[in-house]
Amino acid sequence: MTESRITSSDSVVNSKENSSRTGGETRKSLILLISLVLPVVGFFYLSILTPLPEAYAVCSRRGAKIYTVDDNDTVVQCLVVHNTFIVDTGSLEDVSSRWFARSSFPLPIRYISRGSIIVPGLMDSHAHILEYGASRQLFLGDARSIQEIVSLVRQHILVNAEMYDDKLRSIEGWGWDHLSWSVKEWPTADAFESDPVLRDRSVVLRSKDGHALWLSKKALESIAPLPRDFEGGVIFRRENGEPTGVLLDGAQSLVKGSGPTEQDLLRHFTTTIDDALSFGLTSIHDAGFQPVSLAFFERQTAKGSLPIRIYGMRHFNEKSPDLGNLSIPILNAANGRLNVRSVKIFADGALRSGGAALCAPYFDNPEEKGFMRIEEQLLHEVIIQYLRDGWQVNVHAIGDCANKAVLDAFEDALQYVNVSALRPRLEHAQMLTPEDVMRIGRLGVIASVQPAHATSDMWYAEERLGPERVKGLYAFRSLHDNGGILAFGSDFPVEDMNPLSGFYAAITRLSQDGTSPKGSVGWFPEQRLTREQALRGMTINAAYASFAEERLGSIVPGKLADFVVLSQDIMRIPVYQILKTKVRATIIDGRPVYGYI
Ligand SMILES: *[C@@H]1O[C@H](CO)[C@@H](O)[C@H](O)[C@H]1NC(C)=O
Ligand SMILES: *[C@@H]1O[C@H](CO)[C@@H](O)[C@H](O)[C@H]1NC(C)=O
Ligand SMILES: *[C@@H]1O[C@H](CO)[C@@H](O)[C@H](O)[C@H]1NC(C)=O
Ligand SMILES: [Zn+2]
């Protein structure tokens, strides 16, 4: 009882902060304008200004527009919120007869605008919260040339007085991709030398895929002398041996950096959460709390609440394995908004860079089978150990051999524990043999997939894997039909944060401009999911993947009131319109945290 009161008052504070940050000013001027010009209409709009009462209903004016995602995918006209909970759903008539009779005052009804719909709060099952925020401080992903990037870095320093004055501070940016530039060449340290603001400053710019660093001369000097070669990485050099300023893969670890300050972390966090709430996200699964981020989230929690729900995966360090010893899980901290009861382990690398562990050589490189990031015997042991200790075990696995090794361990764990009850997850689950697709369903393993990766990788995947094995890559429909539970994520900042990008990719298997290597029917169209299946991937299945399906993931009486108002009916409109859909409001615990209702 006491607990639920604390929850509601805290979330009210949160929602006030957030909505004044997001829509407050525009809303006020809109109200002013309307009330001056059209007093009658103005009166109607005043309802948006009055704070939401403890209990209220949200309805569509005509027809059922609330996609509940309950067991039968029921669509209803109204939902009723009391405090932080959904307490009723149904037609306007039914809800009215139940609630108007009951209360001594009329239950206020908010109507969603024409064309809008409501879906459960959206969840991202695989993302990197602080990394996204860090990547947005100086984002280079839209630049198309070296010159453009140099001027972005320069601007960044000029508008940031503190940074401008502190010449010793290293400038960090993220997201360049030389393959997207008009001239597709590797950049060099010289690029910064001709600019008076940048010359003599340490600049460290991370590539979009995180596999390369581009350094200024000063930054290179700070890590000199560089080793001749680097195991597991590359140092680009000129003919005379001088480093050019680009480091690949493992060689990136030569750059230490001072690490973010508390203020940096707070800024990164706020940046991510503001964007997330504006995209309708109400829960995020963080795919790997490094010790620094875990400590940050613990400090935030100690202050009271969090503005969004966070499900954390503890980072497992394969270099110094603290076997099964992660102390105790964090359960329902921050008024239920922070839970950390899973561990994230890396099995292999990535497909694009050739690090995905395959059982047979790459089709385009008969010498190469990729690699495991952790010795297979150790992987096997730690998976079983963590399961026996009661942790949910979430393993990054891309190649068919990596997925097989992980499933073998899950299967062997059966002799000690009820594996499906621990809901282990394959993070990415990208490439699977037909036998392993069936094993996922049989063992009750969750496939934590990123549909947007499928449409990013479809352009080169067949070249790398050949015509047979490629059929087992991103085989979402096969996974679903064999009893696999698919939880959707974006892997932001690697892909676009907007969950509708994943929804669109999963149901079309087309790039955002409507194309694919197989034409406009989509890439392996038999692997498309239905809209209902895809919506489950970002709601109830994601809730299940975080042990939260009893409280979250659908609009059902008794669950917490997390829901989103979308400007268009994504379950019916033509697919090419889906990405034009806007979020009108995001509601957590019954209170708007973005937009308004
Ligand atoms: C779903 O439909 C079945 C069969 O009509 C019914 O028995 C069940 O109660 C329904 N469940 C929900 C949650 O509405
Ligand atoms: C496990 O971790 C805790 C906390 O860091 C530490 O105190 C303890 O000694 C560790 N136990 C083992 C067996 O390593
Ligand atoms: C294992 O757990 C699942 C889910 O909690 C349950 O349905 C099943 O009965 C359990 N199996 C055994 C053998 O206990
Ligand atoms: Zn990730």
TrEMBL record:
Pfam families reported in the protein's UniProt record: Amidohydro_3
Region listing for Disordered, in residue ranges: 1-23
GO molecular function annotation: hydrolase activity, acting on carbon-nitrogen (but not peptide) bonds
N-terminal signal peptide: none
UniProt keyword terms in alphabetical order: Membrane, Transmembrane, Transmembrane helix
InterPro entries named in the record: Amidohydro_3, Metal-dep_hydrolase_composite, Metal_Hydrolase, YtcJ-like
Coiled-coil regions listed in the entry: none
Sequence intervals crossing the membrane: 30-52
Residue ranges annotated for the Amidohydrolase domain, each copy included: 115-594
Protein name: Amidohydrolase 3 domain-containing protein
The species this protein was found in: Pisolithus microcarpus 441
